[in-house]
């Protein structure tokens, strides 16, 4: 896709990041040189290359260098702590890690636990394209794995979602039905380590010769300034970010008349927020639904706004709704959404059991409960899995519980997500202490913050003498959620 667009519009800006403007021709050449450099260093097709970097021209170069050399890109969340980074490097068996200078202390600490890591770079090398021209690039199979994206699942450790070259090009195929073409300038406010920014912003733009404007980190004021400066026409955004942009635009309006398409995904967008956005931007928010394993799956279409719906299925894919008994749901009946899509992943890295559990005869089980109306629109009803989605980021309850268990006073821990007007959900932990031991909320929050990413830290920790458990002795999160909903004191303590 990059080579085609570089031939069709060589001097057109492909990627813009603050003061950096890179043309299609320059991006094609620089990623060629970087791919050849990787091969010259002794890496081979199929080797994993970790990318620990915020949105930047460097990230785009690294992705395409991996794609062209047949290597596998492994993006690493820039908010993770050393132990979390080390797990991804170890589990993926990464051979090389590129870490942004500002982030590198975290990765350096993780590096000590990764003897299989052969190299560590805090800058892209300065390359002589002519000198590297003799290094041949391999023929890359479309079925080979192109990227492994780690996402929190129903287990304490994140799973590595494997996408092939075919499944990564599936996103652009599906997004084309929304009218994206070379006339667009797309604003990427979420990080390229997420499938949404990669498959619904960067790759669709590259495929059709559009321009991508990157924000290294999200700030509402900078996002609005970028729209005004570069006349951005399309945005893909998380609902929490959208709220901040609406507040900033209300306080200090910019010229946002260029925006023709605003897609919001990762969580539901409250009707009040949609109304405020429409009054300030002059267009409607169109909700888009997907997951790391497959995106996009559904999207509200132009002129067919149904507030509260996640839209009909995208073109080129098939969906079905399956009841708990295994039968196909009737219209209006709640069941699990399952999908066959050109953008479906091919499974989880080094985890055949999880792969088998997620696919049913070629159908991807989303784990999300929906109902479909008579017009084919889907309505989200909840999550079959217990993942907490805070600001579009997946948080595994088990991972937070594991961090809490590192405190000697913690006997039992249970973590749930509760509604939050800004982030969609917030993390609330329930703890039972060992007899004769003491611990306070701030002490436990500090411990969790020291072990895992800040956004996973519980906003509130509630203490109980004993936590509800099932017949097998497992803490029952559903009971904790019911307890929280029924207790006004607990809700007050959590700021609700």
CATH architecture of the largest domain: 3-Layer(aba) Sandwich
Report strand order across the widest sheet: 2-1-10-9-11-12-13-14
Count of spatially separate domains: 2
Radius of gyration, taken over Cα atoms and rounded to an integer in Å: 23 Å
How can the largest sheet be summarized? 8 strands, mixed
Number of strands: 25
* Uncertain regions spanning at least 5 consecutive residues: none
Derived structural class: alpha/beta
Q: Which descriptor suits the 3D outline? A: globular
Q: Any idea what the CATH superfamily of the largest domain is called?
A: ANL, N-terminal domain
Q: What is the tally of helical segments?
A: 16
Straight-line N-to-C gap: 48 Å
| Average pLDDT taken over every residue | 94
Q: Give the class-level CATH name of the largest domain.
A: Alpha Beta
Fraction of helical residues: 25-40%
Q: What's the SSE blueprint?
A:
Blueprint: H1 2-8, E1 13-17, E2 20-23, H2 24-40, E3 48-52, H3 57-69, E4 72-75, H4 82-92, E5 96-99, H5 104-111, E6 119-121, H6 129-132, E7 145-151, E8 159-164, H7 165-175, E9 185-188, H8 195-208, E10 211-214, H9 220-230, E11 234-237, H10 239-251, E12 261-264, H11 271-281, E13 285-291, E14 294-299, E15 318-322, E16 335-340, E17 347-348, H12 352-358, E18 359-360, E19 363-372, E20 378-383, E21 388-390, E22 393-395, H13 397-404, E23 410-420, E24 424-433, H14 441-451, E25 460-463, H15 477-486, H16 488-493
Parallel strand pairs: 1-10, 3-4, 3-5, 5-6, 9-10, 9-11, 11-12, 12-13, 24-25
Antiparallel strand pairs: 1-2, 7-8, 8-17, 13-14, 15-16, 16-19, 18-19, 19-20, 21-22, 23-24
Helix pairs in contact: 1-2, 2-3, 4-5, 7-8, 9-10, 10-11
